[in-house]
Amino acid sequence: MSDLKRKIKSLAAAHPFIWKTFKKGQEWEYDLQYERFYGRFSTTTASIREINLEFCSACNLRCRFCALDHLKPKSYMSVEVMDRVFEALLYDERFSRVRQINLHNGGETLLHPQRLDLFQRIRHHKVLFEKQKRAFPKIILLTNGMLLREKLARELLELKVLDEVGFSLDGGSPQAFEEMRVNAKWARFAENVKAFSGLRDELDPSVKTFGICIVPEPHPLNDSWMHPDFQEVARLLNSVEYRRLHDWGGQVDIGENAAVNKKGCSMLINQMVVLPTGEVTVCCNDLNGQGIIGNLREESLYQIYSGEKRMRYIKLLKEGRKDELELCRECVSF
């Protein structure tokens, strides 16, 4: 996501009328996209613009607002699964619109025991794209920052595969940060962000950094009221998106009773999520795999994209029949 889009989302989230207008605009966009890719003007080109790769389903934190089920079996993405994604993007022209790979979902990416092997494999695919004079997707890492110590930060930056690195830094003060992000330690987090920022400037200044910050009510969605130590870290980043809690597709109660929009979903149209097992789900808020539509170990990426299970989501949301989808019916935020 661009810095401008993050600022627009923060502005919209701060003003209910703007937010409703923003959501209505997404509904109109869904109608247009539907007709272009699935309706009257349909083409074999996939509507997908970005793909999430979840390296690891486990997380080292226990954030109070997160929907991740920490009791489910832990899984780690193999090189083979990741290869299937990048090979589809390189050799299947139907995925020509994909411009972004997000290295995150429910788990913490950097918990993968062979994380450097996977990043090196991304570098391998980047070279293949360059040899074919193909634009390589933007690679975006989102992390809780606790494992991004200086040695690992240097190794990742030296590979030159990352375009953006994002940090989750909720709360507005060191105390609130640790209360919201259970098991996180502010001192370690701040040290890691500062070290990464310095190394970025030294090794690869082209890498952009951003933050995603959940702001508790009644504080405004900016950093004017925040603790000076928190402000110092946040201002090291190129941009920060300030947002309220969302409901993880209806899995977390945030005190709202009805969805803002009942028709369409920009995430469904624009995104697919590949889990460590090779399973694919329709939504990045589906942290526990309730919306599985296929498995890359058994089908191609395009077969999953165009398959009956995904098309059911596409059609029912187009018709405003969200309540018939177990994954979507309770969703407030999207």
Please describe what this structure looks like.
The protein is an alpha/beta fold and 334 residues long. Helices cover 38% and strands 13% of the residues. Helix 1 (3-14) packs across helix 2 (16-37) and helix 5 (150-159) runs parallel beside helix 7. The protein starts with a helix and ends in a 16-residue tail after the last helix.
Number of strands: 9
Largest sheet: 9 strands, mixed
Q: Given the C-alpha coordinates, what overall shape results?
A: globular
Number of helices: 11
From the alpha-carbon coordinates, what is the Rg to the nearest angstrom? 19 Å
Query: SS-based structural class?
Result: alpha/beta
- Note the run of SSEs as H and E: HHEHEHEHEHHEHEHEEEHH
Uncertain segments are none
Q: Termini distance?
A: 16 Å
Order of strands across the widest beta sheet? 6-5-4-3-2-1-7-8-9
Q: What percentage of amino acids are in beta strands? A: 5-15%
Helix content: 25-40%
Mean pLDDT: 90
Descriptors for this entry?
38% helix; alpha/beta; 334 residues; 9-stranded mixed β-sheet
Compose a concise summary of this entry.
The protein is of the alpha/beta class. It has helices spanning 3-14, 16-37, 79-91, 115-131, 150-159, 174-180, 186-203, 228-234, 266-270, 301-305, 308-318, and strands at residues 50-53, 100-103, 138-143, 164-168, 208-214, 239-243, 271-274, 279-281, 292-295. Helix content is 38%, strand content 13%.
